[in-house]
């Protein structure tokens, strides 16, 4: 198994190389050259297995023998032992055929833990094997930073530097990052906004000479290993609901499209999926593209579901590559046009996507209405991201005989603002985090200057 770029020009890589590399050198994203298949019997045999064992079986072909089975099994088992629920990602039945897949029982209460608990361990494994160290840099306005820190805090060969805009992230989100006091974790509060922080990280990736040869690693969702880890919960939940003997539909609160692309991969591996419903907030590029063939950037809107606030949906390129028949040149041309001006997909690829994907966009007022309505009907308090999914799932549900699984991407305690606006007193943090607001914090405030940030990285990396 090799990994190839969606733009067709970069060299093919091994699994190890693809984990250590972010974007392909031609600007594309890496995808597996062939899709491993799960047969009817393979799926049937997963009934009743633990999440870690299903994870091992689903991901093992992608690892391609580059980690021996026993070691990989240990890595997977340790990654998912950090979750506070025995089922790791439990299903919660809302009504006759609508289920919530609770992806928020990891250390930082959002679904990004599923991927980042694994990715940190994979990076550390490969770096140890090579006798190398690496530096992770990332900018965050929320969920990714804390999940990356939790995923790397025990990694001997990694130092992680996460930039957040000073005094512009919520207290819970800041404390989830700054209360991790591990020697290899460095939180930097930038005197600027999120875009300033992001620009400094981008510039550091573009010119890495300040690190004198130490590898710089990205942990955003363009890393293939994050997608791979997310395939697992589609398979595990569908098997729990009767696959391969019956079909399932999924509704996915979406932004960069990493999550729903993982679902598409599960489908391509052989999971019987009726359809995928993509839920967006008011930043609706995915919905506009699918519903109106309007593939264009619009200004960023700050919404009550902030982890879905995006202008461009980076992983959508991976799906376009499939829709365009794996024609890297066509994908490269389309995305070049898209960067410059509003554009549209060609008819045939769009028709192909519409066979499998539906979409729905949900604005802030509706998010609040859904939180109230869902509580009234089911007693559940949804987080605002999950609320977009709930509404989209109800709208696009389709046949009653097919279970609809809505992915619950965050715990409501993490997004108290929306919950309180919807009229609830708030939701307590789960027991293992109830002292978060008393924990000691550590972070460094720096001006929004590239040289100051890079000097800090050089001085502190181990
Ligand atoms: C990151 C995130 C999303 C969006 O996921 P994508 O993979 O970018 O589509 C949705 N909800 C929450 C809570 C998130 O943190």
From TrEMBL:
InterPro entries: Ser/Thr_deHydtase_PyrdxlP-BS, Thr_synth_N, Thr_synth_N_sf, Thr_synthase-like, Threonine_Synthase, TrpB-like_PALP, TrpB-like_PALP_sf
Keywords, ordered alphabetically: Amino-acid biosynthesis, Lyase, Pyridoxal phosphate, Threonine biosynthesis
One Pfam family of this chain: PALP
Domain of life: Bacteria
UniProt keyword Lyase present: yes
Lyase is among the record's keywords: yes
EC number(s) stated in the UniProt entry for this protein: 4.2.3.1
Domain spans labelled Threonine synthase N-terminal: 2-80
Catalytic activity: O-phospho-L-homoserine + H2O = L-threonine + phosphate
Pathway stated in the Swiss-Prot or TrEMBL entry: Amino-acid biosynthesis; L-threonine biosynthesis; L-threonine from L-aspartate: step 5/5
Segments forming domain Tryptophan synthase beta chain-like PALP: 99-331
Gene Ontology MF terms: threonine synthase activity
Enzyme class: lyase
Cofactor(s) the protein needs: pyridoxal 5'-phosphate
NCBIfam families on file: thrC (TIGR00260)
Similarity comment: family membership: Belongs to the threonine synthase family.
Name of the protein described by the UniProt record: Threonine synthase
Taxonomic lineage: Bacteria, Pseudomonadati, Pseudomonadota, Gammaproteobacteria, Oceanospirillales
